[in-house]
Design a protein that fits this description.
The complex is a heterodimer of chains A (215) and B (303). By secondary structure, chain A is an all-alpha fold. Chain A has one domain. Chain A contains seven helices and no strands. The termini of chain A are far apart. Chain B is mainly alpha-helical. Chain B has one domain. Chain B contains eleven helices and no strands. Classes of the chains: A mainly alpha (215), B mainly alpha (303). The interface between A and B is medium-sized, with 22 and 18 residues.
Chain lengths: 215, 303
């Protein structure tokens, strides 16, 4: 077991469970921020041989800056504009969501045990955790109505793919990582703007009620 | 070396009510009051033991048996609990199940006694107590099972003394999760604040207090003392996981464990001063969270 990496993995899992169990949207955004911070540290922990290079540091800084600071700030802005504090009625209740999260974790562990072993992977937890995060992200997008929560789900999904890339394929070119981060930034930015416009147009951000035309 | 289990057991019997005093003192400190003396619980017990008991004519022997059985259960549980690196007074393979279900029997008789009074309030408290403990129990069992997996033994007396710093360096994240889950269980089982408020006497919000409203005199002393011992037992398990310091000298180990328990009581006081009680509807979510933390630790260890 690699203790620092496993601790980060643990933070990721616990923040995911929190996301499934918390009803306050503001706390959800905080949890995603913590997740972004923990995630950003991963490249530093993975590449220990020969010390971190300048590029690694750059990736770490940009990741933490975007996922730990900028995205949560954007989401908080959107929340403040929308003036909604909690999810009104999620499709799946919070306790049930947490139980589903546990099932997803077990499923992810099973799935990753079926995959051929990634040679040189520094942590045995990385594969199950990244699958788990992808499942949880999808689950949040499917089960929550509030638009901000859907962005949160998207971010979790993206974080899961990031974990997979950083820990398991630890030779991802810098250009690709930067491209992915830029894509995520553009997506969150566009969604934030969309939430703002939906809110000012419809007086709510409940995606289930967005099936009526408004002239 | 063979004396330590007995000494530790006596230490538990003598200083369990002190923990209640430490919690109250911490809360008073946070509120800027002087607060009751640290040894207040002893005076309360002394006063109650010298009173007579009043029994309603509608109650049966079940009502009288409740406090006695409760105290007996928790005394056995204390005898099963290892403390400060020394084994417990008695132990056998699988006694962790006995410990969990001793608390179950204690709760069952408290609930029966509450129902026996026929009071609507007490029935309500009993229903809540059973609902919450049904969720706390799996968290407790799974947590203990995870510790058993780390140490490779099924007896509390060999499990806890075997825990040491190397276990933390190897299975640190899992042990931390278990400790977090057990802390929630510790708060819920001892009816402390995020779950239940031991100070409030508003019938609509309390859980444990409402069940023992009709007990008085020595019976209530038994209940109070049983609650203090339960706090001690669960606290000893929790601090045994969090602070497995082994110096090789039994006296120092016991002293460190004792100090850890007092610190834990102070931490409970801090939690109680800085948090509000959760709404009743949200308590199950917290407890399911504890179950998940324990389960997560177990999954981590199994890999």
């Amino acid at each position: 077991m690699n203790l620092p990496i496993d601790s980060v993995m643990l933070v990721l899992v616990v923040t995911n469970l929190l996301l499934l169990g918390l009803s306050q949207l503001r706390s959800c955004v905080h949890a995603v921020a913590v997740q972004g911070f923990a995630l950003g540290l991963l490249p530093l922990l993975v590449r220990q041989s020969g010390g971190p290079t300048v590029w690694t540091l750059l990736v770490v800084l940009v990741t933490i800056g975007l996922k730990g600071v900028v995205f949560p700030k954007l989401l908080q802005e959107a929340l403040r504009d929308a003036d909604v504090r909690r999810e009104k009625r999620p499709h799946v209740g919070y306790t049930m969501s947490m139980v589903m999260g546990f099932v997803a974790l077990a499923g992810a562990a099973w799935l990753s045990s079926r995959l051929p072993a990634f040679s040189g992977s520094p942590s045995t937890l990385a594969a199950p955790v990244s699958f788990f995060m992808i499942f949880v992200g999808l689950f949040i997008i499917l089960s929550r109505n509030h638009a901000v929560n859907q962005i949160v789900g998207y971010l979790v999904l993206e974080n899961g793919i990031y974990v997979f890339g950083v820990v398991l394929l630890h030779e991802l070119p810098l250009l690709v990582e930067m491209g992915v981060l830029l894509d995520a930034f553009a997506a969150v930015f566009v969604m934030g703007v969309a939430v703002y416009h939906i809110n000012s147009e419809f007086d709510h951000v409940d995606v289930d009620q967005l099936d009526k035309l408004k002239g | 070396m063979t004396l330590f289990p007995i000494i530790n057991f006596l230490l538990a019997l003598v200083s369990a009510p002190l923990l209640l005093g430490v919690i109250n003192k911490t809360k008073a400190l946070f509120a800027g009051r002087r607060g009751q003396p640290v040894l207040q619980a002893y005076s309360d017990l002394w006063k109650l033991l010298h009173k007579g008991a009043v029994y309603s004519r509608t109650t049966t022997w079940v009502f009288r048996a409740g406090p006695v059985v409760g105290l007996a259960c928790v005394l056995v549980a204390a005898a099963l609990t290892p403390f400060g690196g020394a084994p417990a007074l008695m132990g056998f393979s699988g006694d962790l199940l006995l410990l969990v279900y001793l608390f179950g029997v204690m709760r069952f008789f408290t609930v029966l006694a509450a129902l026996d009074t026929g009071s609507a309030f007490e029935g309500m408290g009993a229903s809540r107590e059973v609902q919450f403990s049904a969720l706390a129990e799996p968290a407790f069992l799974l947590g203990l099972a995870a510790v058993a997996h780390v140490t490779g033994s099924f007896s509390l007396s060999t499990m806890f003394p075997a825990l040491d710093a190397t276990d933390w360096s190897q299975a640190g994240p899992a042990l931390l999760l278990v400790a977090a889950a057990l802390f929630i269980v510790f708060l819920a089982e001892n009816s402390r604040i995020p779950v239940d408020d031991p100070d409030t006497h508003l019938e609509l919000t309390m859980i444990h207090e409402v069940m023992v409203l009709d007990h008085g005199g020595p019976d209530f002393a038994f209940i109070l003392y049983g609650a203090a011992l339960k706090l001690w037992v669960l606290g000893a398990l929790l601090s045994g996981i969090l602070l497995p310091v082994r110096t090789g000298f039994g006296v120092i180990d016991s002293a460190i464990a004792w100090a850890a328990l007092v610190a834990l009581a102070a931490a409970v006081g801090v939690v109680e001063s800085s948090m509000a009680r959760l709404r009743l509807l949200r308590v199950p979510r917290l407890l399911v969270g504890a179950v998940l933390l324990s389960g997560l630790a177990f999954v981590l260890l199994l890999r």
